[in-house]
Specification:
InterPro entries: DjlA_N (IPR007791), TerB-like (IPR029024). This is Co-chaperone DjlA N-terminal domain-containing protein. The chain has one domain: TerB-like. Helix 3 (26-40) packs antiparallel against helix 4 (47-61), helix 3 (26-40) packs across helix 6 (84-92) and helix 3 runs parallel beside helix 7. The chain has 143 residues and is an all-alpha fold. It has nine helices and no strands. It is 76% helix and 0% strand.
Length: 143
C-alpha cells in the first residue's frame, strides 16, 4: 500500500513511468503506434480491440495497467509526428523475431473484434511486405 502511494507521488513529480518508458524507446513508440493504427483501420474502436491492446501493452512490454491510459494519451498527442512508413522504417533493422512479434500483435488486434475488415487486411498485408515477413510467420509461432 505504501509503495503504491509512493509510486503515485513519484509519478506526479517524474511523470508516468509507462509514458517515460514509451517516450524513451522510439521502437516501442513506433510499435504501439502501429498497433493503434490497426485498431483504427476499420474506422471504429471496439472494446475487444482495446482489451487486446491493453493486454499486449502489459504482457509484451511490461507497461502497468495504471499507465496504459496515459500511454494512449501520449500516443495521441505525439503520434502525429510519426507516420506509418517512419514507424515501419524503425523495424527494418531489427531482428526477424521482433518484426514477427509486431506482425502477430497487429493480427491479434485485427482479429480481436471477430470481424476482419478489408482495411485491416490491407494494413497488415502492407506491413508484412514492408517488414519482409511471410504471412505464415504470423500464424506460426517461432516462424
Amino acid at each position: 500500500m505504501a509503495f503504491a502511494l509512493l509510486d503515485q507521488i513519484r509519478s506526479i513529480f517524474d511523470g508516468d513511468p509507462g509514458v517515460r518508458k514509451v517516450a524513451d524507446d522510439p521502437v516501442l513508440s513506433a510499435e504501439l503506434l502501429m498497433l493503434f493504427r490497426m485498431i483504427l483501420a476499420d474506422g471504429s474502436v471496439s472494446e475487444s480491440e482495446m482489451v487486446a491492446f491493453r493486454r499486449i501493452c502489459k504482457e509484451a512490454f511490461g507497461i502497468a495497467e495504471t499507465s496504459i491510459d496515459s500511454v494512449i494519451e501520449y500516443l495521441n498527442e505525439f503520434g502525429y509526428e510519426t507516420n506509418g512508413s517512419q514507424a515501419i522504417a524503425l523495424f527494418r533493422d531489427l531482428d526477424i523475431e521482433r518484426r514477427r512479434q509486431l506482425a502477430r500483435h497487429m493480427a491479434e488486434i485485427a482479429k480481436a473484434d471477430s470481424q476482419l475488415a478489408e482495411s485491416e487486411v490491407r494494413l497488415l498485408r502492407r506491413t508484412l511486405d514492408l517488414l519482409d515477413i511471410s504471412p505464415v510467420d504470423v500464424v506460426k509461432p517461432g516462424g
